[in-house]
């Protein structure tokens, strides 16, 4: 299941926050990759 603190993977704001992060930590990369897979499954 989602372990991103209950944030929705389809939240555009959530995506923008991660993409605008000054550093892309491994956790962010995993979430962004999961979001891409989620979008492709729609």
Q: In words, what does this structure look like?
A:
This protein has helices at residues 12-19, 26-41. The chain has 42 residues and is an all-alpha fold. It has one domain (12-41). The mean pLDDT is 68.
Number of distinct helices: 2
| Low-pLDDT windows of residues | none
Helix coverage percent of residues?
55-70%
Query: Approximately what portion of the residues adopt beta-strand conformation?
Result: under 5%
Q: In angstroms, what is the radius of gyration?
A: 10 Å
Q: Which class of secondary structure composition applies to the elements? A: mainly alpha
Average the pLDDT over all residues and give the rounded result. Answer: 68
Give me the count of strands: 0
List the secondary-structure elements in sequence, H or E.
HH
Largest sheet: none
Number of domains: 1
**Envelope shape:** flat
Distance between the termini: 17 Å
Compact overview of the structure:
The chain is mainly alpha-helical.
Layout of strands and helices, then pairs:
Blueprint: H1 12-19, H2 26-41
Organism: Fulmarus glacialis
Protein name: Coiled-coil domain-containing protein 79
Notable features of this structure?
42 residues; mainly alpha; Coiled-coil domain-containing protein 79
């Amino acid at each position: 299941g989602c372990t991103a603190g209950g944030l929705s993977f389809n939240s555009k704001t959530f995506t923008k926050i991660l993409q605008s992060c000054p550093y892309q930590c491994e956790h962010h990369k995993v979430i962004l990759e999961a979001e891409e897979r989620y979008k492709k499954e729609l």
